């Protein structure tokens, strides 16, 4: 393959990654877990296919990245980092909510009062 063709394939892969990120953003906004899963898988597949093309470009000795392509890759990286931060924040929030709803069994809400046989029986009745 000639260098121009490989460069065009790199540009196409970056455009596909950006498209996947758009779809993943929309899935996050919809809060539809099925769509989030589907778009996440599509995004992972696109990244995998892109690595093959980028490796091919490196082997073909394609000239260094153009300023436009470099800028697009930086934008992709920034978007991915933003999505990761949003997912981590949502996961942490969910963890705190679950912790409040279902506290650790080893924690004693009422100290030694919670250790009486009656308190343990009531505690077990509500689990």
Q: SSE layout and pairings?
A:
Elements: H1 3-30, H2 33-60, H3 67-101, H4 117-125
H/I helix tally: 4
Mean pLDDT metric: 80
What ranges have pLDDT less than 50 throughout 5 or more consecutive residues? none
Radius of gyration from the alpha-carbon trace, in angstroms: 25 Å
Global structural class: mainly alpha
Seen as an oligomer or otherwise, the chain set is single chain
Topology pattern, helix = H, strand = E: HHHH
Number of E-state strands: 0
Molecular shape: rod-shaped
Strand content: under 5%
Main beta sheet, described? Answer: none
State the end-to-end distance. Answer: 66 Å
Helix content: over 70%
Description:
This protein has 127 residues and is mainly α. The chain is built from four helices and no strands. It has helices at 3-30, 33-60, 67-101, 117-125. The mean pLDDT is 80.
Summarize the structure.
By secondary structure, this protein is mostly helical.
Task: Describe the structure using short key phrases.
single chain, 79% helix, 127 residues
